[in-house]
Design brief:
This protein is elongated. With 135 residues, the chain is mostly helical. It contains five helices and no strands.
Length: 135
């Protein structure tokens, strides 16, 4: 059997820091001791322990994910040059508004000459939006 790495005090402190994990471990221990006498058959005890272990695993992963988020947030805050909050500039708003592939460029931004004045034939569909501009 492996020797414990944490002392009893350290283990208690860590469980106190994670109350949801503490509750799940407490529930598992109560199922093992069965002081109420409700788990008379092995099948009932097995189902109870499996459910407790499943919930313990979910709580452990949730606690791990929350810890990772906190750790990453601290690292990002420590990194200089990252702008976390504040109002976006007009240029950023313009770029985000027109970042989709099929977003049309506003007519006020079209500074090129019309294709329809340079061509005598019918413009292909690819240039339909440009040909439709009013110059």
């Amino acid at each position: 059997m492996p020797t414990p790495r944490l002392s009893n005090e350290e283990l208690f402190e860590k469980l106190t820091a994670h109350p949801r994990l503490r509750n799940q471990i407490e529930s598992l221990l109560l199922a093992v001791e069965d002081e109420t006498g409700e788990l008379r058959e092995a099948d009932a005890a097995e189902m109870r322990v499996i459910e407790d272990i499943r919930r313990l695993g979910q709580e452990a992963l949730q606690a791990w994910a929350e810890h990772q988020v906190e750790k990453t947030a601290k690292e990002v805050q420590a990194t200089s040059g990252i702008w976390k909050e504040g109002k976006k500039t007009v240029l950023a708003q313009y770029l985000w508004r027109h970042r989709c592939r099929r977003t049309a460029i506003p007519a006020s931004d079209q500074t090129c000459a019309c294709v329809c004045t340079k061509r005598k034939s019918k413009p292909p569909e690819l240039f339909a939006a440009t040909a439709a501009c009013r110059c």
